[in-house]
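pls ignore typos typing on phone
iron/sulfur cluster + seq
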Amino acid sequence: MELAMGRIDDTSGRFILSGCTPAFANSFRREMIGGVAKLAIEDVKIYDNTSALFDEMLAHRLGLIPLRTERSVHVPAAECACEGVGCPACTAIYTLSVEGPRMVTSGDLIPQDPSTGPVDDRIPIVKLTQDQKVVLEAKAVMATGRQHAKWQPTLTCGYKNYPVITMDEHCDGCGMCVEECPRGVLAVRNEKVSVVKTRLEDCSLCRLCERKCFEESIGGESSIRVTPDETRFVFQVESDGSLAVLEIVETALRHLKQKALDLETILSEVSEGESHAATS
Ligand code: SF4
Ligand code: SF4
Ligand SMILES: [Zn+2]
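k done
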Protein backbone atom coordinates (compact mmCIF):
# COMPACT_ATOMS: atom_id res chain seq x y z
CA MET A 1 0.00 0.00 0.00
CA GLU A 2 1.24 3.48 -0.83
CA LEU A 3 0.09 6.99 -0.02
CA ALA A 4 1.39 9.71 -2.36
CA MET A 5 0.77 13.26 -1.20
CA GLY A 6 -0.28 15.73 -3.88
CA ARG A 7 -0.94 19.29 -2.81
CA ILE A 8 -1.53 19.61 0.91
CA ASP A 9 -1.75 22.46 3.42
CA ASP A 10 -3.36 22.84 6.85
CA THR A 11 -6.93 23.13 5.58
CA SER A 12 -7.05 21.02 2.42
CA GLY A 13 -5.25 18.13 0.83
CA ARG A 14 -5.38 15.85 -2.18
CA PHE A 15 -3.51 12.55 -2.23
CA ILE A 16 -3.44 9.15 -3.93
CA LEU A 17 -3.87 5.91 -2.02
CA SER A 18 -2.85 2.86 -4.05
CA GLY A 19 -2.54 -0.88 -3.62
CA CYS A 20 -5.59 -1.33 -1.38
CA THR A 21 -9.19 -2.54 -1.59
CA PRO A 22 -12.29 -0.28 -1.83
CA ALA A 23 -13.21 -1.55 1.67
CA PHE A 24 -9.95 -0.21 3.12
CA ALA A 25 -10.33 3.13 1.30
CA ASN A 26 -13.82 3.48 2.76
CA SER A 27 -12.68 2.54 6.29
CA PHE A 28 -9.96 5.20 6.01
CA ARG A 29 -12.52 7.82 4.91
CA ARG A 30 -14.86 6.88 7.78
CA GLU A 31 -12.04 7.00 10.33
CA MET A 32 -11.00 10.50 9.22
CA ILE A 33 -14.60 11.72 9.57
CA GLY A 34 -15.70 9.92 12.71
CA GLY A 35 -12.63 8.61 14.53
CA VAL A 36 -10.30 11.60 14.98
CA ALA A 37 -11.06 13.55 18.17
CA LYS A 38 -11.17 17.34 18.41
CA LEU A 39 -12.49 20.00 20.80
CA ALA A 40 -16.11 21.22 20.54
CA ILE A 41 -18.32 23.07 23.03
CA GLU A 42 -20.50 20.61 24.91
CA ASP A 43 -21.71 22.37 28.12
CA VAL A 44 -22.92 25.96 28.32
CA LYS A 45 -23.92 27.83 31.50
CA ILE A 46 -26.05 30.80 30.45
CA TYR A 47 -26.11 33.56 33.07
CA ASP A 48 -27.99 36.08 30.95
CA ASN A 49 -29.63 35.83 27.52
CA THR A 50 -32.03 38.50 26.36
CA SER A 51 -31.24 37.91 22.67
CA ALA A 52 -33.80 36.71 20.09
CA LEU A 53 -32.43 33.15 20.30
CA PHE A 54 -33.50 30.52 22.87
CA ASP A 55 -30.77 29.28 25.24
CA GLU A 56 -30.79 25.88 23.47
CA MET A 57 -30.31 27.49 20.04
CA LEU A 58 -27.46 29.60 21.35
CA ALA A 59 -25.75 26.52 22.84
CA HIS A 60 -26.24 24.62 19.57
CA ARG A 61 -24.60 27.40 17.56
CA LEU A 62 -21.68 27.54 20.01
CA GLY A 63 -21.19 23.78 19.62
CA LEU A 64 -20.63 24.15 15.88
CA ILE A 65 -17.76 26.67 16.15
CA PRO A 66 -14.44 25.01 15.14
CA LEU A 67 -11.86 25.30 17.96
CA ARG A 68 -8.09 24.93 17.58
CA THR A 69 -7.00 21.56 18.94
CA GLU A 70 -3.45 20.46 19.80
CA ARG A 71 -3.05 16.73 19.15
CA SER A 72 0.12 16.74 21.29
CA VAL A 73 -1.75 18.19 24.30
CA HIS A 74 -5.41 17.20 24.03
CA VAL A 75 -6.72 13.65 24.43
CA PRO A 76 -10.28 12.32 24.05
CA ALA A 77 -12.25 12.65 27.32
CA ALA A 78 -12.94 8.90 27.30
CA GLU A 79 -9.18 8.12 27.35
CA CYS A 80 -8.02 10.94 29.68
CA ALA A 81 -6.18 10.21 32.94
CA CYS A 82 -8.75 12.36 34.79
CA GLU A 83 -11.35 9.62 34.02
CA GLY A 84 -13.97 12.05 32.74
CA VAL A 85 -13.73 14.57 35.64
CA GLY A 86 -12.41 17.23 33.25
CA CYS A 87 -8.86 18.61 33.06
CA PRO A 88 -6.87 20.86 30.67
CA ALA A 89 -5.94 17.76 28.59
CA CYS A 90 -9.53 16.92 27.65
CA THR A 91 -11.51 20.14 28.21
CA ALA A 92 -11.24 23.88 27.48
CA ILE A 93 -13.16 26.69 29.18
CA TYR A 94 -14.49 29.89 27.56
CA THR A 95 -16.36 32.95 28.72
CA LEU A 96 -18.48 35.35 26.68
CA SER A 97 -20.08 38.63 27.74
CA VAL A 98 -21.53 40.98 25.11
CA GLU A 99 -24.08 43.79 25.22
CA GLY A 100 -25.95 45.10 22.14
CA PRO A 101 -26.35 46.63 19.73
CA ARG A 102 -23.96 44.45 17.74
CA MET A 103 -23.30 41.01 16.29
CA VAL A 104 -21.88 38.43 18.74
CA THR A 105 -19.17 36.46 16.94
CA SER A 106 -16.86 33.56 17.73
CA GLY A 107 -14.14 36.14 18.45
CA ASP A 108 -16.11 37.13 21.59
CA LEU A 109 -15.42 33.70 23.10
CA ILE A 110 -12.51 34.25 25.52
CA PRO A 111 -10.57 31.00 26.04
CA GLN A 112 -8.85 30.28 29.38
CA ASP A 113 -6.04 28.70 27.33
CA PRO A 114 -5.32 30.96 24.30
CA SER A 115 -4.15 27.94 22.23
CA THR A 116 -7.75 26.63 22.18
CA GLY A 117 -9.36 29.74 20.64
CA PRO A 118 -11.84 29.63 17.74
CA VAL A 119 -10.33 28.87 14.32
CA ASP A 120 -12.03 31.96 12.89
CA ASP A 121 -13.09 35.04 14.88
CA ARG A 122 -15.76 36.14 12.38
CA ILE A 123 -18.37 33.38 12.79
CA PRO A 124 -21.71 35.06 13.68
CA ILE A 125 -23.52 33.65 16.75
CA VAL A 126 -26.42 36.04 17.37
CA LYS A 127 -27.30 39.65 16.55
CA LEU A 128 -28.11 41.83 19.56
CA THR A 129 -30.21 44.97 19.42
CA GLN A 130 -30.06 47.88 21.91
CA ASP A 131 -29.91 46.67 25.57
CA GLN A 132 -29.90 42.95 24.65
CA LYS A 133 -27.23 40.94 26.41
CA VAL A 134 -25.56 37.51 26.39
CA VAL A 135 -23.38 36.35 29.29
CA LEU A 136 -22.25 32.72 29.46
CA GLU A 137 -19.54 30.22 30.28
CA ALA A 138 -18.83 27.31 27.93
CA LYS A 139 -16.89 24.07 28.28
CA ALA A 140 -15.44 22.28 25.24
CA VAL A 141 -14.52 18.61 25.44
CA MET A 142 -12.50 16.27 23.24
CA ALA A 143 -14.58 13.65 21.45
CA THR A 144 -15.10 12.16 17.99
CA GLY A 145 -17.63 12.52 15.17
CA ARG A 146 -19.06 9.12 16.10
CA GLN A 147 -20.65 10.83 19.13
CA HIS A 148 -21.92 13.91 17.29
CA ALA A 149 -21.23 15.61 13.94
CA LYS A 150 -19.91 18.73 15.73
CA TRP A 151 -16.75 16.72 16.57
CA GLN A 152 -16.01 15.86 12.94
CA PRO A 153 -12.71 17.56 12.01
CA THR A 154 -13.41 17.32 8.26
CA LEU A 155 -15.66 19.40 6.04
CA THR A 156 -15.09 17.48 2.79
CA CYS A 157 -13.73 13.97 3.03
CA GLY A 158 -14.21 11.76 -0.02
CA TYR A 159 -12.49 9.76 -2.69
CA LYS A 160 -12.98 8.49 -6.22
CA ASN A 161 -11.35 5.66 -8.12
CA TYR A 162 -8.29 6.65 -10.11
CA PRO A 163 -9.38 7.00 -13.76
CA VAL A 164 -7.86 4.85 -16.49
CA ILE A 165 -8.39 6.31 -20.00
CA THR A 166 -7.46 4.34 -23.09
CA MET A 167 -7.94 4.97 -26.83
CA ASP A 168 -7.83 2.38 -29.57
CA GLU A 169 -6.36 2.61 -33.08
CA HIS A 170 -9.75 3.52 -34.64
CA CYS A 171 -9.67 7.06 -33.16
CA ASP A 172 -9.62 9.53 -36.09
CA GLY A 173 -9.03 12.60 -33.95
CA CYS A 174 -12.46 14.14 -34.69
CA GLY A 175 -12.34 15.90 -31.28
CA MET A 176 -16.01 15.28 -30.37
CA CYS A 177 -15.01 13.75 -27.03
CA VAL A 178 -12.74 16.73 -26.28
CA GLU A 179 -15.68 19.14 -26.70
CA GLU A 180 -17.89 16.91 -24.56
CA CYS A 181 -15.48 16.61 -21.59
CA PRO A 182 -16.55 19.10 -18.87
CA ARG A 183 -13.18 18.88 -17.07
CA GLY A 184 -10.74 19.67 -19.89
CA VAL A 185 -9.04 16.29 -19.51
CA LEU A 186 -8.72 15.49 -23.23
CA ALA A 187 -6.98 17.13 -26.21
CA VAL A 188 -6.34 16.24 -29.86
CA ARG A 189 -2.68 15.97 -30.80
CA ASN A 190 -1.30 14.58 -34.07
CA GLU A 191 -4.83 13.62 -35.17
CA LYS A 192 -5.30 11.41 -32.13
CA VAL A 193 -6.99 12.18 -28.83
CA SER A 194 -4.88 12.03 -25.68
CA VAL A 195 -5.03 12.98 -21.99
CA VAL A 196 -3.74 16.44 -21.15
CA LYS A 197 -0.66 16.13 -18.94
CA THR A 198 -1.52 16.81 -15.24
CA ARG A 199 -5.31 16.69 -15.92
CA LEU A 200 -5.94 12.95 -15.57
CA GLU A 201 -6.82 13.16 -11.85
CA ASP A 202 -9.49 15.76 -12.67
CA CYS A 203 -11.47 13.17 -14.64
CA SER A 204 -14.77 12.49 -12.83
CA LEU A 205 -15.37 9.17 -14.64
CA CYS A 206 -18.62 10.60 -16.02
CA ARG A 207 -17.95 8.74 -19.34
CA LEU A 208 -19.59 11.50 -21.43
CA CYS A 209 -16.61 11.25 -23.80
CA GLU A 210 -17.23 7.54 -24.26
CA ARG A 211 -20.93 8.10 -24.98
CA LYS A 212 -20.20 10.89 -27.48
CA CYS A 213 -17.68 8.76 -29.36
CA PHE A 214 -20.16 5.87 -29.41
CA GLU A 215 -22.96 8.13 -30.76
CA GLU A 216 -20.74 9.55 -33.50
CA SER A 217 -19.09 6.28 -34.52
CA ILE A 218 -20.07 4.37 -37.64
CA GLY A 219 -19.37 0.89 -36.33
CA GLY A 220 -21.23 1.41 -33.04
CA GLU A 221 -18.03 1.16 -30.97
CA SER A 222 -16.37 3.81 -28.83
CA SER A 223 -12.67 4.39 -29.47
CA ILE A 224 -12.19 5.86 -26.01
CA ARG A 225 -12.67 3.84 -22.82
CA VAL A 226 -12.82 5.21 -19.27
CA THR A 227 -12.61 2.69 -16.42
CA PRO A 228 -12.00 2.98 -12.67
CA ASP A 229 -8.82 1.51 -11.16
CA GLU A 230 -10.23 -0.61 -8.31
CA THR A 231 -7.00 -0.46 -6.28
CA ARG A 232 -6.15 3.23 -6.56
CA PHE A 233 -8.06 6.17 -5.09
CA VAL A 234 -7.88 9.96 -5.30
CA PHE A 235 -8.72 11.45 -1.88
CA GLN A 236 -9.88 15.01 -1.27
CA VAL A 237 -9.89 16.12 2.39
CA GLU A 238 -10.74 19.51 3.85
CA SER A 239 -10.34 20.35 7.54
CA ASP A 240 -12.50 22.80 9.50
CA GLY A 241 -9.23 24.23 10.83
CA SER A 242 -9.34 22.55 14.25
CA LEU A 243 -6.64 20.09 13.12
CA ALA A 244 -4.27 20.16 10.14
CA VAL A 245 -5.18 17.78 7.28
CA LEU A 246 -1.93 15.84 7.79
CA GLU A 247 -2.78 15.30 11.49
CA ILE A 248 -6.21 13.94 10.49
CA VAL A 249 -4.65 11.58 7.93
CA GLU A 250 -1.93 10.33 10.29
CA THR A 251 -4.29 9.85 13.25
CA ALA A 252 -6.85 7.94 11.15
CA LEU A 253 -4.14 5.64 9.75
CA ARG A 254 -2.74 5.01 13.26
CA HIS A 255 -6.24 4.09 14.47
CA LEU A 256 -6.77 1.67 11.56
CA LYS A 257 -3.42 0.00 12.27
CA GLN A 258 -4.31 -0.38 15.96
CA LYS A 259 -7.73 -1.82 15.09
CA ALA A 260 -6.10 -4.36 12.74
CA LEU A 261 -3.62 -5.37 15.47
CA ASP A 262 -6.46 -5.72 18.01
CA LEU A 263 -8.41 -7.89 15.58
CA GLU A 264 -5.34 -10.06 14.99
CA THR A 265 -4.94 -10.56 18.76
CA ILE A 266 -8.62 -11.44 19.19
CA LEU A 267 -8.53 -13.91 16.29
CA SER A 268 -5.40 -15.64 17.61
CA GLU A 269 -7.03 -15.88 21.09
CA VAL A 270 -10.14 -17.41 19.52
CA SER A 271 -8.16 -19.95 17.49
CA GLU A 272 -6.05 -20.83 20.59
CA GLY A 273 -9.27 -21.36 22.56
CA GLU A 274 -10.67 -23.60 19.82
CA SER A 275 -7.53 -25.75 19.63
CA HIS A 276 -7.58 -26.15 23.49
CA ALA A 277 -11.21 -27.23 23.34
CA ALA A 278 -10.41 -29.74 20.57
CA THR A 279 -7.53 -31.36 22.53
CA SER A 280 -9.32 -31.56 25.92
S1 SF4 B 1 -14.72 11.08 -30.31
FE1 SF4 B 1 -13.77 9.07 -30.59
S2 SF4 B 1 -12.88 9.17 -32.63
FE2 SF4 B 1 -13.30 11.31 -32.05
S3 SF4 B 1 -11.38 12.00 -31.09
FE3 SF4 B 1 -12.64 11.18 -29.46
S4 SF4 B 1 -11.98 9.03 -29.23
FE4 SF4 B 1 -11.25 9.77 -31.23
S1 SF4 C 1 -14.98 10.53 -18.18
FE1 SF4 C 1 -15.87 12.61 -18.12
S2 SF4 C 1 -14.30 13.85 -17.11
FE2 SF4 C 1 -13.31 11.93 -17.70
S3 SF4 C 1 -12.37 12.36 -19.67
FE3 SF4 C 1 -14.40 11.52 -20.11
S4 SF4 C 1 -15.78 13.28 -20.25
FE4 SF4 C 1 -13.87 13.99 -19.31
ZN1 LIG D 1 -9.07 15.00 31.41
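The CA atoms of residues 35 and 157 lie 13 Å apart. The helical segments are 22-34, 55-63, 176-180, 208-216, 245-279. more later
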